[in-house]
Automatic annotation (TrEMBL):
<dbReference type="InterPro" id="IPR029033">
    <property type="entry name" value="His_PPase_superfam"/>
</dbReference>
<dbReference type="Pfam" id="PF00300">
    <property type="entry name" value="His_Phos_1"/>
</dbReference>
<dbReference type="InterPro" id="IPR050275">
    <property type="entry name" value="PGM_Phosphatase"/>
</dbReference>
<dbReference type="GO" id="GO:0005737">
    <property type="term" value="C:cytoplasm"/>
</dbReference>
<dbReference type="InterPro" id="IPR013078">
    <property type="entry name" value="His_Pase_superF_clade-1"/>
</dbReference>
<protein>
    <recommendedName>
        <fullName>Phosphoglycerate kinase</fullName>
    </recommendedName>
</protein>
<dbReference type="InterPro" id="IPR001345">
    <property type="entry name" value="PG/BPGM_mutase_AS"/>
</dbReference>
<dbReference type="GO" id="GO:0016791">
    <property type="term" value="F:phosphatase activity"/>
</dbReference>
<keyword id="KW-0324">Glycolysis</keyword>
<keyword id="KW-0413">Isomerase</keyword>
Length: 223
């Protein structure tokens, strides 16, 4: 049985409402660093592989788990957040300041549209997510911890649950609604599993019956 623990990074400066220079270099807050430490402490045995997004906040979150299990290899995969707004336009802005641009992007509902240099289309993004699932399925490691981002993790869940046949405007709108309805808290996520010779992924819900993410995040690796 292959088990993959998908974990969103700890609280970032942008999550706390601060301006960020660019999407890739946003740091963690002190609270985010503490969350990363708690994730590392939740494992009761070493994962066979640790995977992290190249974005700084995910790398730093993964660092605590890497330090706890120094013999476990760390790999950086292209599982970074969806950069759908032109990075240069967003430099030194807050989430609140970008809100109108965000609403305009999603109102367009064009999966092939790129906002500008350095931005990716929704179609590009979903291709990255599907490539990640394909790479996971082929990887020989059975217990994998993955440190990524809220939108990327939600896109994984959406592909598995909704199984869209075509990535068109309707699918794009459906994913946006799915993302808003199913926010992934910092250092929470999903648990994926796949049996040998099975061509489908199974996914556990991100929130436990008590309303917290601990039941998912701690199983099957956790205490």
């Amino acid at each position: 049985m292959k088990n993959v623990r998908l974990i969103r990074h700890g609280e970032s400066a942008a999550n706390a409402g601060k301006a960020s220079l660019d999407h890739a270099t946003i740091p963690l807050t002190p609270k985010g660093v503490e969350q990363a430490y708690l994730v590392a402490q939740s494992f009761n045995h070493a994962p066979a592989l640790i995977v992290a997004s190249p974005f700084f906040r995910a790398q730093v979150t993964a660092t605590a788990t890497v330090a706890a299990f120094p013999a476990t290899p760390l790999e950086t995969w292209p599982i970074h957040e969806f950069t759908y707004l032109e990075p240069a336009r967003c430099a030194n802005t807050t989430v609140a300041q970008r809100q109108n641009w965000v609403e305009a992007y999603w109102a367009k509902s064009d999966p092939t549209f790129r906002d500008g240099a350095g931005a990716e289309s929704f179609m590009d993004f979903i291709f990255r997510v599907q490539s990640f699932l394909d790479q996971l399925a082929k990887h020989p490691a059975q217990d994998i911890a993955v440190f990524s981002h809220g939108q990327f993790i939600n896109a994984v869940a959406w592909l598995i649950e909704r199984k869209p046949e075509t990535i068109d405007g309707r699918a794009m709108a459906d994913w946006r609604e799915y993302e808003i309805t199913n926010p992934v808290p910092n250092c929470c996520g999903y648990l994926l599993s796949r049996r040998p010779a099975d061509d489908t992924w199974r996914i556990c819900p991100q929130v436990g019956p008590d309303g917290s993410c601990s039941k998912l995040v701690l199983s099957p690796f956790g205490k």
